[in-house]
User: Which sequence fits this backbone?
């Protein structure tokens, strides 16, 4: 890991932070969900934080498509994406914390030092407290404030020594946040009884750790704390679920005595309408959080009368993207309102990520619901959920088509299962494995039998690909220079060469050397007609006993993707 510390908070650094935090939350999500006992024991805080940061990361990606994007612009995009995509109480508060990063950077385009770190953390903490109608200590708020205070202490010590190290100040902030997280059970009785720390605070620590890692030029694998104080001097190992499923407080069932519904919506209104909205919603329920500004607000509240909350907003402005969740549903998933995916039918459907318009058309002709993948950008959880909703089926099989999308597909599947659907993810790592799975799909077979058959077909398909190196690098097959031809087998670079045909022939011959009956060639947008013909004819001549199938996939960046069955 590099130890050099950047002297500016660039757009690239903000983007790296967003994606590092997203990956870390993906790993931590189930653990954070299990900690979730306050304010509502609905077991979804980790998932909500993941969705919030995913929306923020996608917004930063869009900002960074402009080469001249600055760190301030990227930080603002981060905050805007989080605001629009915030889920749950902790997600809304996190979006306000990220807004503080953007505001704190307004004065800091010139550099990144300890003073900047302190300013963005302090502004985030202040905005988070301002957003909550009745702040409660022992929550994400306490952890964020402690992070800002830790940064302030480190900044003071650094100033006394005549230096201001961004990495050292950020590390101090993370340590202070972790210490505060460990003390949350001493502040909230619900946490002490469950023997857990605050779920939102744990998620925030993951996000802050990610920033510290990116500033230092690397990332650590996320690991949960094993034990924490229970408030009586003893240590308690965190349970896999906060309470037993016997109607106790942790299952969201009879033990939960709070308001019946979580209501969330975006709100288009003038700034002077917000105090009135806060007062009306505060009188209707609790857990009220309102964040945003400049006529766009994100509102979260727990109420017994969801209709009254929405009507109050309609009288003062325009609520949209309304989501209503029944809090006494054991899964914590939406049971009514705009949050529900769909009313499922009885049939089975397959959702597949496609690479290239040719493959998308091929899959569509087989009645597969398509999620198009863009170059170097994996589909989001929201896109996969939208495709599941479009399927209108009670049984869904998801084919992610690459390893980076598999984790996202699993999260989408879990969300859909919470709404009563039967969903299975077959971890296809290439589009040719997806095509192999689709080829044996039988919608009339039992669901489990169909999934097993598709999984076997995908697993029996070895995959390879040809691409062009975009920069100089050291690969598993040796050094390469920009413009070299790379041959990948099962995701690893195995061949580096200067000639497209030579590399292609060597890769195919190596893959067929250990056997195969069928080879599928999916040609990309950059593959010219003569080369396509030459490759297919060479395979037929060199391996006359192998069946050859070719497709015009049209995928970018990969002139050829192939599968051997």
Assistant:
């Amino acid at each position: 890991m590099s130890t050099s510390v950047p002297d500016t908070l660039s757009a690239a650094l903000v983007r790296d932070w967003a994606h590092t935090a997203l990956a870390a939350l993906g790993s931590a999500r189930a653990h954070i969900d299990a900690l979730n006992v306050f304010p509502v024991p609905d077991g979804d805080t980790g998932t909500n934080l993941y969705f919030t940061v995913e929306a923020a990361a996608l917004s930063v990606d869009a900002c960074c498509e402009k080469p001249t994007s600055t760190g301030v612009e990227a930080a603002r995009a981060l905050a805007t994406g989080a605001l629009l995509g915030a889920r749950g109480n902790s997600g809304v508060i996190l979006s306000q914390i990220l807004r503080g990063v953007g505001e704190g950077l307004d004065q800091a385009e010139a550099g990144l030092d300890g003073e900047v770190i302190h300013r963005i953390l302090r502004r985030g903490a202040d905005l988070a407290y301002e957003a909550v109608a009745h702040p409660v200590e022992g929550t994400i708020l306490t952890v964020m404030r402690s992070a800002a205070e830790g940064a302030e202490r480190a900044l003071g010590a650094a100033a006394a020594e005549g230096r201001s190290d961004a990495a050292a100040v950020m590390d101090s902030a993370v340590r202070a946040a972790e210490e505060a997280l460990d003390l949350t059970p001493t502040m909230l009785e619900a946490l002490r009884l469950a023997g857990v720390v605050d779920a939102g605070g744990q998620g925030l620590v993951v996000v802050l750790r990610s920033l510290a890692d990116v500033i230092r030029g690397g990332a650590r694998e996320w690991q949960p704390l094993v034990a924490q104080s229970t408030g009586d001097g003893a240590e308690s190992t965190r349970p896999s679920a906060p309470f037993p499923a016997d109607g106790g407080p942790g299952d969201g069932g009879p033990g939960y005595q709070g308001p019946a519904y979580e209501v969330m919506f975006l709100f288009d209104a003038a700034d002077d309408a917000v105090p009135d909205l806060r007062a009306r919603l505060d009188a209707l329920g609790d857990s009220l959080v309102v964040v945003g500004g400049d006529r766009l607000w994100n509102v979260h509240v727990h109420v017994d009368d969801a209709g009254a909350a929405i009507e109050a907003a309609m009288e003062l402005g325009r609520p949209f993207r309304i989501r209503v969740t029944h809090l006494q549903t054991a899964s914590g998933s939406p049971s009514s309102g705009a949050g529900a995916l769909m009313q499922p039918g009885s049939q089975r459907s397959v959702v597949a990520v496609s690479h290239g318009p040719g493959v998308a058309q091929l899959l569509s002709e087989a009645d597969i619901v398509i999620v198009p993948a863009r170059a170097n950008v994996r589909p989001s959880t929201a896109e996969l959920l939208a495709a599941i909703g479009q399927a209108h089926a009670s049984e869904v099989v998801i084919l992610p088509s690459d390893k980076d999308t598999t984790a996202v597909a699993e999260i989408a599947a879990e969300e859909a299962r919470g709404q009563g659907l039967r969903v299975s993810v077959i971890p296809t790592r290439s589009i040719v494995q997806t095509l192999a799975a689709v080829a044996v799909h039988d919608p009339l077979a039992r669901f489990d039998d169909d999934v097993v058959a598709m999984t076997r077909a995908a697993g029996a398909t070895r995959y390879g690909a040809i691409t062009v190196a975009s920069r100089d690098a050291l690969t598993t097959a040796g050094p390469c220079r920009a413009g070299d031809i790379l041959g990948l087998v099962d995701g690893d670079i195995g061949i580096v060469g200067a000639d497209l045909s030579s590399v292609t022939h060597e890769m195919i011959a190596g893959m067929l050397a250990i056997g195969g009956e069928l080879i599928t060639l999916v040609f990309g947008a950059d593959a010219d007609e003569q080369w396509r013909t030459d490759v297919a004819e060479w395979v037929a001549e060199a391996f006359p006993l192998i069946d050859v199938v070719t497709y015009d996939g049209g995928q970018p960046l990969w002139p050829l993707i192939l599968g051997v069955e």
In short: Residues 11-35 form the longest helix (25 residues). The domain at 11-220 is CATH 1.25.40.340 (Serine Threonine Protein Phosphatase 5, Tetratricopeptide repeat). Residues 220-256, 329-345 have pLDDT under 50 and may be disordered. The CA atoms of residues 42 and 332 lie 5 Å apart.
